[in-house]
């Protein structure tokens, strides 16, 4: 199954599998981006800042860093701006390698880049698998991994399940890690879509073995611009700064951080959309008899056990049916424990979500 594209959001890589033109018009549910699109002021601001491209950016991105520190209630020394959440993941792995970590555990199924980053830095990987179907964490197993490996990666809320490991569990893992010299790396790329009190930022005051990875590309729908950051102890962030290539974030992206964080209206509109649309889509998919994982994020994972039984069909077949109808969803072939038996869809606007539901209904009842 390795010839399936490893990330969503690339119709030109997926559609030709089905003999469809790569540039066909599709509704893209395969990348988990805010369907509100970038804030309306963004294009104009970028155009106005083009002159900044003529000079090198501040290598420490102090203005952006301070804006993040302020909004997170942290000191500036605990923040490092990165070229998307992806760079934050690779920097976290680089730090672990620098600290001598030889083996890391990853809570699976999850985003594939933690494993790639670890392997890139020569760190062996073991997996802590969530329970099939419920995707609950076996806390004893995770605790064991925290004792045995030098680090544990987990994603919260988790891509692709949308599940959220309880904060109390995270705290216990951190305590175990502290007494065994292990780091906990939590990717909070989708935390902006969860209620604010679920952010783990306050735990940084108590645990210096915690690293938090953030992305700004999902919430603000700017994956092409690349913007993320990393939060940790001042010592860890300082070590990470040493490992980061110089000027890895471009001036246009860095200059957007403060105004993006200040745009509370955009955040409120996003919350209003998601509060209405996620339960609606989840309910409609469940009403079609699909097995939908309750999600804390802006995407839903589902499968259709009945369909597989009754028609000998499969989720890849449903994916193809949807693609032929101009709807792109995310396959799960690369996710450990899912192996193509589930599909993931981003929550989008009501008309788009309705189009998805209707297309699945046509598949089920042709
Ligand atoms: C869980 C998770 N973390 C990080 C990233 C990387 O995001 P960015 O675009 O900020 O690099 C993604 C992208 O899909 C993701 O799903």
Which helices and strands appear, and what pairs or packs with what?
Elements: H1 11-14, E1 27-28, H2 42-48, H3 62-72, E2 79-82, H4 84-98, E3 103-108, H5 113-120, E4 124-129, H6 139-148, E5 151-155, H7 167-180, E6 183-187, E7 210-215, E8 228-231, H8 234-243, H9 251-262, H10 264-287, E9 291-292, E10 299-303, H11 305-311, H12 315-324, E11 327-328, E12 343-346, H13 350-364
Parallel strand pairs: 1-11, 3-4, 3-5, 5-6, 6-7
Antiparallel strand pairs: 2-8, 7-8, 9-10, 10-12
Task: Give an overview in words.
- By secondary structure, the chain is of the alpha/beta class.
- The protein folds into two domains: 11-38 and 265-364, Alpha-Beta Complex (Aspartate Aminotransferase, domain 1); 42-262, Aspartate Aminotransferase, domain 2 (3-Layer(aba) Sandwich).
- The chain has helices at 11-14, 42-48, 62-72, 84-98, 113-120, 139-148, 167-180, 234-243, 251-262, 264-287, 305-311, 315-324, 350-364, and strands at 27-28, 79-82, 103-108, 124-129, 151-155, 183-187, 210-215, 228-231, 291-292, 299-303, 327-328, 343-346.
- A seven-stranded mixed β-sheet has the order 2-8-7-6-5-3-4, with helices on both faces. Strands 9-10-12 form a three-stranded antiparallel β-sheet. The protein has a two-stranded parallel ribbon with strand order 1-11.
- Strand 5 (151-155), helix 7 and strand 6 (183-187) form a beta-alpha-beta unit.
- The chain is globular, with a radius of gyration of 21 Å.
- Residues 309-313 have low confidence and may be disordered.
- Pyridoxal-5'-phosphate binds next to helix 4.
């Amino acid at each position: 199954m390795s010839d399936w594209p490893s990330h969503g959001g690339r119709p030109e890589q997926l559609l030709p599998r089905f003999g469809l033109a790569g540039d066909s018009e599709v509704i893209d549910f395969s990348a988990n981006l805010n369907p509100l699109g970038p804030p309306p002021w963004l294009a104009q601001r970028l155009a106005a800042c083009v002159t900044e491209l003529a000079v090198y950016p501040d290598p420490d991105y102090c203005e952006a860093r301070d804006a993040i520190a302020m909004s997170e209630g942290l000191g500036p020394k605990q923040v490092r701006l990165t070229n998307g959440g992806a760079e934050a993941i690779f920097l976290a792995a680089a730090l672990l390698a620098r600290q001598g970590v030889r083996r890391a555990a990853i809570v699976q199924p999850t985003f594939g880049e933690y494993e790639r980053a670890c392997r890139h830095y020569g760190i062996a990987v073991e997996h802590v698998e969530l329970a099939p179907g419920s995707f609950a964490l076996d806390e004893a197993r995770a605790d064991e991994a925290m004792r045995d490996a030098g680090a544990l990666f987990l994603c919260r809320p988790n891509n692709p399940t949308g599940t959220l490991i309880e904060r109390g569990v995270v705290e216990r893992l951190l305590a175990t890690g502290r007494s065994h010299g292990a780091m906990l790396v939590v990717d909070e790329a989708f935390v902006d879509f969860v209620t604010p009190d679920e952010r783990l930022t306050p735990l940084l005051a108590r645990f210096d073995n915690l690293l938090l990875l953030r992305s700004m590309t999902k919430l603000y729908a700017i994956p092409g611009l690349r913007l993320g950051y990393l939060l940790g102890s001042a010592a860890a962030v300082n070590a990470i700064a040493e490992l980061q290539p110089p000027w890895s974030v471009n001036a246009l992206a860095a200059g957007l951080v403060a105004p993006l964080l200040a745009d509370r209206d955009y955040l409120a509109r996003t919350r209003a959309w998601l509060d209405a649309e996620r339960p609606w889509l989840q309910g409609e998919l469940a009403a079609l008899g699909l097995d939908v994982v309750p999600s804390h994020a802006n995407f839903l994972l589902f499968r259709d056990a009945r369909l597989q039984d009754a028609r000998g069909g499969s989720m890849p077949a449903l994916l193809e049916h949807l693609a032929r109808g101009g709807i792109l969803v995310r396959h799960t072939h690369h996710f450990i424990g899912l192996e193509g038996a589930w599909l993931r869809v981003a929550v989008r606007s009501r008309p788009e979500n309705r189009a998805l539901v209707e297309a699945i209904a046509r598949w089920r009842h042709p």
